[in-house]
Amino acid sequence: MADQINQTEQQQDLNQLLQVRRDKLKVMQEEGRDPFHITKFDVSHHAQEIKENFDAMEGMEVTIAGRLMSKRGMGKVSFCDLQDKSGRIQLYARKDEMDETNYNHFKKYDIGDIVGVLGEVFRTQRGEMSVRAKEITLLSKSLRPLPEKFHGLTDKELRYRQRYVDLIMNPEAKRCFEIRSQFVSYLRRYLDDLGFMEVETPVLSPIAGGANARPFITHHNTLDIDMYMRIATELHLKRLIVGGMERVYEVGRIFRNEGMDTKHNPEFTTCELYQAYTNLDGMMDILEGILSGACYAIHGTYQLKWLGNDIDLTPGWRRLTMADAVKEVTGADFMAVLGDADAAAQLAKAAHVDLEGVPHTWGNILYETFDQKVEETLVQPVFITMYPVEVSPLAKRSPECPALTERYEAFVCGCEMGNAFSELNDPIDQYERFKAQAEKRAGGDEEADMMDEDFVLALEYGMPPTGGLGFGIDRCAMMLCGTDSIRDVILFPTMKPLD
Asked: Which H helix or E strand runs over 434?
């Protein structure tokens, strides 16, 4: 009961504050000073630029603009913190140094208002780098107060729902998105320098393929057909390899109608790339180069702290087959019972692996053992290679062991950071694997691949030996930002609607 009374009082206080701000706006509009009629303000400098170059700029006249984050008044002198895209700087406003009317108007501005300032760079008696205001113009009236000064916006769910307020109040949130942007810029430069061409492929398709995932379904009214939002860009990009584009990549949005947690959002961003005439080894070199290089370019070091672990992204990552990784952690030697599902099941059960619902094949049991017992132990960066063919419908079989494929996944802190293949280019083998996936789908597996006969047709024209790689931009940004939730690196994550 007490909580309800407190919430009611808080709402009443808020309503009063909202009305006061609207009343101020009404007065300004009646006096012909409507801030929303202003269309432009020329900014000459930003806060951080002034601070970094203060000695050279002291005494210089500047124009800056941003949001008022605090106000402190002492009669005829006022101090404010102004925040722009680069950070904060103090404003010094003195009544006898400004037009009196302009100063009196400024005194009525609220925290959260956006202003433009003409002033002079100087240092206060206390040594604070500041801008001495000559003229202050209200550019936009904030009709809603910012969160309370000392507590800020701390409720994580509210931060995700109101990202605009989160970015105003929490500098570390903004830093995450700066790092994400720097990472995407770096990977584009890296791939462009290797001769890759960036392309765009369809988001809507009559077939959802290229991954084992449940798709979102929509309807095309003109064609009167259901279409799927893409779950991967793979099959279109490999068509381009068939067409002679030897190195292509796409940074694009992917949609999977699956669960949400700290590592998964229904829509997310991936980079997929394909290079003709190379294999799995080439794809390992590229992913290692992108992640290590971006880490060093952004942070100036290969060392990071993520998910409570100190990790080292220095080039030269470990490379280990899945069977060897399982043997290293559990002692179970699956290669000694290659092809024998019953023996594999005994090894898995001895390692306390839950096989309920797992298809009774050697490959599926090996993969499940790795998934349950090994993946979470992979803290330092490592490439796990040679995946069973049953879980790799688009990867080329290993010439030395046809039960395995030339596929890898990279792991850091138990998280998958990338998935790559020596791509399957045998159209007959591809058709049979699609057929097996289609049978799974017909049996109720909504994540199994669909039959894509046009892709098989493309392979029949001939695709060169090709390496392919896909990795999540969001997951990489999580690592580089040191955050434990994907929602911290997606500006507007999917949220359950409020009642």
From this structure: helix 427-442
What pLDDT sits at residue 150? 43
The H or E element containing residue 62 is strand 61-74
Q: Give the pair of three-digit tokens for residue 494.
A: 């999917």
Other CB atoms within a 10 A radius of the CB of residue 463 amount to 21
Q: Which of 213, 210, 199 has its CA nearest to residue 273?
A: 199
How far is 351 from 334, CA to CA, in rounded Å?
12
3-state DSSP call for residue 403?
coil
Q: β-strands 204-205, 225-229: how paired?
A: antiparallel
Residue 273: which of 231, 234, 245, 244 has the closest Cα?
234
If you write DSSP's letter for every residue of 147-207 in order, what string do you get? SPTTT-S--HHHHHHTHHHHHHH-HHHHHHHHHHHHHHHHHHHHHHHTT-EE----SEESS
Q: Which long-range contacts (CB under 8 A, 24 or more apart) does 227-230 make?
A: 228/204, 229/203, 229/204, 229/255, 230/201, 230/202, 230/203, 230/204, 230/205, 230/254, 230/255
Q: How far is CA 319 from CA 141, 184, 408, 411, 478, in A?
A: 57, 25, 9, 11, 23
What are the tens digits of pLDDT across the range 222-265? 999 999 999 999 999 999 999 999 999 999 999 999 988 888 99
**Greatest Cα-to-Cα distance within the chain, rounded to the nearest angstrom:** 91
Query: Considering the entire predicted model, what is its pTM?
Result: 0.91
Closest by CA position to 69, among listed 109, 39, 118, 127: 109
Rounded distance between C-alpha atoms, residue 190 and residue 292, angstroms: 12
For helices 362-373 and 322-330, give the axis angle rounded to 10 degrees.
60
Q: Which two tokens stand for residue 70?
A: 């605090």
Beta bridge partners of 248: 197, 274
How far is 94 from 103, CA to CA, in rounded Å?
A: 8
| Cα distance between residue 420 and residue 259, in whole Å | 24
**Contact predicate 82/156, CB 8 Å:** no
Q: For the chain, which residues score pLDDT lower than 50? A: 150
- What pLDDT is recorded for position 212? 82
**End-to-end alpha carbon distance in the chain:** 22
pLDDT tens for 240-250 read 999 999 999 99
Residue 162: how many CB atoms within 10 A of its CB? 15
Nearest-10 crossing angle of helices 453-460, 427-442: 170
Tokens 């930002």: give the residue.
481
CB count within 10 Å of CB 97 equals 15
Listed in sequence order, the residues at least 6 apart from 458 whose beta carbon sits closer than 8 Å to its beta carbon are: 238, 239, 242
- Provide the pLDDT for residue 6: 62
How far is Cα 210 from Cα 393, in angstroms, rounded to an integer? 9
Contact 154, 166 (CB under 8 A): no
Helix ranges, 200-246 (H) = 234-242
Residue with tokens 């760079």: 121
